[in-house]
Amino acid sequence: MGVLKKFEQRLEGLVNGTFAKVFKSEVQPVEIAGALQRECDNNATIWNRERTVVPNDFIVELSAPDYERLSPYSGQLGDELSGMVRDYAKQQRYTFMGPIKVHLEKADDLDTGLYRVRSRTLASSSSQSPAGSAGPSGGEQRGGGYGYPPAGGPPAAAPAGAPPMPSAPPPGAGRGPQARGQGPSAPLPGAQTRRWIEINGTRHQISRPTMVLGRSTDADVRIDDPGVSRRHCEIRTGTPPTIQDLGSTNGIVVDGQHTTRATLRDGSRIVVGSTTIIYRQAEG
């Protein structure tokens, strides 16, 4: 079951029907939850071969009417949203530099139904536990579990709204995402990352910064599938590598999650239409 679906089910059981009544406002909590997931993906920073750090402090700006409806429940809603972020991070193998917090704020320049999400990375040295770990009682923490800072101490807090800034990785650590099945040793000097995708057993090398997949003959990789749009999605070989939906009819599913943009790792499974694509990368 997807993280957003679990989030919706948790909300259904809160305070009997109170939340159901409040959530008839234009902005729905599941929309905010989806935006927080995208905020993590868009601001993911590779720390070393074994760690990708994402923001842990989120500010959700709401119009005055939506804020008035939701603010009485901001504490409980913030806890649920924080838990959703933690579940998503565990699934994506992201880590945090401090406790996860989600705040609601009123923005007078927004109309009803519109919202804005800002995020930042706030470091904390008071606790060191992996993202998604259990608390002392063995139960799931709400707003408390986070990834421990790498060796050398945590980075300085980023200014509000700014993407997290990478710090120097520990000695001997690589700079690319860890390939599955490989040890933690650093790549050889001068090694380059090779990237490719596999479709029905056929390998397609990624040799340019972008690769467009679709049903059109103009696509870099043509996929003969009626459920695939002419220009369906695009793989971008940045740091980290990502996949972006290009306004397709049926969208993309990455590692079981329906999304418009996602970070890719070696072995990521991408589904477009009825076609499954495996993303691969390796040093050398």
List the helices and strands and how they pair.
Layout: H1 3-12, H2 18-22, H3 29-42, E1 45-48, E2 51-53, E3 57-62, H4 64-70, H5 74-92, E4 94-95, E5 101-106, E6 115-120, E7 193-199, E8 202-205, E9 210-214, E10 221-222, E11 233-236, E12 242-245, E13 252-254, E14 257-259, E15 261-263, E16 269-272, E17 275-283
Parallel strand pairs: 2-4, 3-5, 9-10
Antiparallel strand pairs: 1-2, 3-6, 7-8, 7-17, 9-11, 11-12, 12-15, 13-14, 13-16, 16-17
What does this structure look like?
This protein is of the alpha+beta class and 284 residues long. Helices cover 19% and strands 26% of the residues. It contains five helices and 17 strands. The chain has helices at residues 3-12, 18-22, 29-42, 64-70, 74-92; strands at residues 45-48, 51-53, 57-62, 94-95, 101-106, 115-120, 193-199, 202-205, 210-214, 221-222, 233-236, 242-245, 252-254, 257-259, 261-263, 269-272, 275-283. The strands form four sheets. A six-stranded antiparallel β-sheet has the order 8-7-17-16-13-14, with no helix packed on it. Helix 1 packs antiparallel against helix 5 and helix 3 (29-42) crosses helix 5 (74-92). The protein is globular. The protein starts with a helix and ends with a strand. Mean pLDDT is 74; it is low at 126-188. Residues 151-172 have a biased composition (Pro residues). This is DUF3662 and FHA domain-containing protein. It comes from Streptomyces cavernicola.
